[in-house]
Amino acid sequence: MSVDLATVRKIAGLARIATSDAEAEALLPELNNILGWIEQLGEVNTDGVEPLAAVIPNHLRLRDDVVTHDQTGGGIRDAVLANAPQAEHGFFAVPKVIE
Amino acid sequence: MTDLTNLGIADIRDGVAAGTFSAREVASAFNAAVAKGKPLNAWLVETPDHALAAADAADAARASGDLKPLSGVPLGIKDLFCTKGVETTAASGILKGFVPQYESTITSKLFGAGAGMLGKLNMDQFAMGSSNETSAFGNVISPWKRNDGGNAALAPGGSSGGSSAAVSARMAPGVTGTDTGGSIRQPAAFTGISGIKPTYGRCSRWGVVAFASSLDQAGPMAKDVRDCAIMLEAMSGFDPKDATSLDLPVPAWEKRLSGDLKGKRVGIPREYRVDNMPAEIEALWEQGIAWAKDAGAEIVEVSLPHTKYALPTYYIIAPAEASSNLARYDGVRYGLRDLPDGANLQEMYAATRADGFGAEVKRRIMIGTYVLSAGFYDAYFTKAQKVRSLIVRDFEQAFEKCDVLLTPTAPSAAFGLGEKAADPIAMYLNDVFTVPSSLAGLPAMSVPGGLDGQGLPLGLQIIGRPLDEQGVLNAGLAIEERAGFTARPGAWW
C-alpha cells in the first residue's frame, strides 16, 4: 500500500504540522519507503494471537481520589503557567477561537 | 596525584569515604574536563555549581559520618530528564527555553543519594536517532578516531550520544541514558563503555520527556559493570507517579556481583547471525562465547524466529506512541510558539510544530499518525502488537533453555557522521540487535569486548529474563574480566 500526495497532506493535517508543497513532495518517497518496509509484517501468521497489552505483567493501581501535595498535585498554578509562551490572568492565552 | 577524571563511580565513592581525596577535588576536576570538552558538543547545559554544591555536601557528610551511596559522585544527565530550574529541551527546538518546575524521579533519586550534576547531555532530538545527528543543537562528536590517519568525525551512537561521549572522554564518571530501542546499549558499544537498560518498569518514567511510553526505560552508562550496578540501584524503585512502575524491592546488585558463570546456560540466538555482518563482529561474538565458557557457562544454541520482524514492528509501535505523546507540543503550555500574523489556533499549532520539530521527529510523527488513522489501525498497529506478542513468546521459549543471551550489541562499529543520515532505513537497521529485547521489556546491557581493525570499540550484549538484572550484570562482569578492555580515545579535543 503506498500513499499519494493527498494522503501525505491529510496526515500532515491530522498531525498538525504545517507542510509546504515542496515538503510534502519530499516526504512522499520517504514515507512510502518506510511503509513499504514495515509491510513485511504481512508475512507473519498472527491468527489467534492476542495483541500485546503490557510487556511486563503489572496491575493497574487506583489511588485515593484526593488532591495530592507533591509536584503532581493542586495549588501550583503559577508553576504550571511558568513556561507558557503567553499566560494572562492565571490562564493560558491562545488566539481567539470564537468569532 | 593521579588524574581524578580517570576514576569511576566506585573509585570516587570509596576514595571520598576513605579521605584519599575530597569530593570537591573530584567535582572540580570533572567540571574542568567538561569545560575543556566543548569541541565534542556533548553538553547542552553545564551546571558546575550543582556539582560543587553536592560535593561540598558530600565532604560535610564524610566529616559527620553520614555518607550516602553516591556521595561525592558527579554525574552527567541526559537532557531527556526534567531537572528543576535547569533548561531541559530533549535536544529539540520546540522545547527551547523550557525550565522544568519539578525534578524527574530519577534525578531526584540520584541527587537524594548524594550525586551532583555536571550538566545536561546532548542527544538525538526526543531520543529519535542512532547517531546523535538529529539534535537541534548540533552533532556530538565521538572522542574516538579511526587509526587510519584520517580525521573523520565519528558518531558517538544514539540516542544517548552526549552520554556516551561524556563517559568515554572522561568528562563524567557516569551518566544517565534512556533506551527505547537501543539508545543506551548502541552508544555504549560505539564508545567502549558499559550501559544497562533494566527491565521495563524498574526505573520511573516520571519527569522523563516521553518518546514511546511502552518502550522507554532509563538506565546508567559508566566505565564498567560495577559502576552500572551502583548507579542502577540508586535509580531503580517503585514510583506511584508512573503507572507502569513495578512495585518491587530493589536488589543489592553490586553486593551480589559475580563473574562466575558455573551452572549458567548462555544462549546464542541463531537468527542474530545476520547477512553482511562484518567478520570482526562475528569474531568478537565467538570470542565472547569462549569467555563465557571460560567463566564456567554452558553454551546453548537457541532460536528467536521472529527476530527479523522486530525492527518493522518497532517502527510501527514507536512512531505510533510518539505521535500521541508529542501531540502535547502545541505552543500553548510550554516551549516554542509560532503565531503568524492573523493565524487562528489551528494554524498556530501547525506553524509551531513545523518550526519546532526536526525532520526525523516529523517523519516519525507522520508515520505514527498514519498507522493509527482510521482504516489503517488494524492493518498496522494491531498487527504490530500481535507480532510483538510473538517476539515476547520467542524470548520466553528461549529462556526455557538458557539463563541469558549473548549477542553483538550493534552490527557495526561507530560510523562516520553523515554516512547514514540520508537513508532512514539504513540508520534504523543499526538497532537490529537491541530492538527485540526492548519490545519484550527485558533487561539488557552492552559491555566493551575489543577493538576492530580500525581501532574502534565493539560491544557485546547480554539479554536477561524479566527482572534478572543480576544475571545480566554477572554475565557482563564475566565478559569484562576476560576482555580486559582498557583502550580509550586520546584527548585530541
Tell me how many strands of chain B there are: 11
Assess the beta-strand content of chain A as a share of residues. Answer: under 5%
Order of helices and strands of chain A: HHHEE
Instruction: Please provide the count of β strands of chain A.
Output: 2
The helix/strand class of chain A is mainly alpha
**String of helices and strands of chain B:** HHEHEHEHEHEEHEHEHHHHEHHEEH
Q: How much β-strand is present in the residues of chain B?
A: 5-15%
CATH names the topology of the domain at 5-43 in chain A as Histone, subunit A
Query: What is the assigned CATH homologous superfamily of the domain at 4-260 in chain B?
Result: Amidase signature (AS) domain
Number of helical stretches of at least 4 residues of chain B: 15
Radius of gyration of chain B: 21 Å
State the separation between the terminal residues of chain A, measured CA to CA.
41 Å
Proportion of residues in helical segments of chain A: 25-40%
Structural class from helices and strands of chain B? alpha/beta
Helix content of chain B: 25-40%
Task: Report the total helices of chain A.
Answer: 3
Largest interface: A-B, 56 and 71 residues
Q: Compute the gyration radius of chain A: what is it? A: 23 Å
Mean pLDDT of chain A: 91
Question: Uncertain spans of chain A, ≥5 residues at pLDDT below 50?
Answer: none
Question: Concise description?
Answer:
Chain B: Residues 33-473 form the Amidase domain. The complex is a heterodimer of chains A (99) and B (493). Chain A has helices spanning 5-14, 21-38, 77-81, and strands at 87-88, 91-92.
Please give a structural write-up.
The complex is a heterodimer of chains A (99) and B (493). Chain A is built from three helices and two strands. Chain A has helices at 5-14, 21-38, 77-81; strands at residues 87-88, 91-92. Chain A has a domain at 5-43: Orthogonal Bundle (Histone, subunit A). The longest helix of chain A is centred in the first third of the chain and has 18 residues, at 21-38. The model of chain A has no long low-confidence stretch (mean pLDDT 91). In chain A, helix 1 packs across helix 2. Chain A is mainly alpha-helical. The two termini of chain A are 41 Å apart. In chain A, 33% of the residues lie in helices and 4% in strands. In chain A, strands 1-2 form a two-stranded antiparallel sheet. In chain B, strand 10 (444-451) and strand 11 form a beta hairpin. Chain B has helices spanning 9-18, 23-36, 48-63, 105-112, 161-168, 185-191, 225-235, 279-294, 310-325, 345-356, 359-371, 377-398, 424-428, 435-439, 469-483, and strands at residues 43-46, 74-78, 116-121, 174-179, 194-197, 217-222, 265-269, 298-302, 404-408, 444-451, 457-464. Chain B has 15 helices and eleven strands. Chain B has a domain at 4-260: Amidase signature (AS) enzymes, CATH 3.90.1300. Chain B is globular. Chain B is of the alpha/beta class. The chains are: A mainly alpha (99), B alpha/beta (493). At the A-B interface, helix 1 and helix 2 of A face helix 9, helix 10, helix 11 and helix 12 of B.
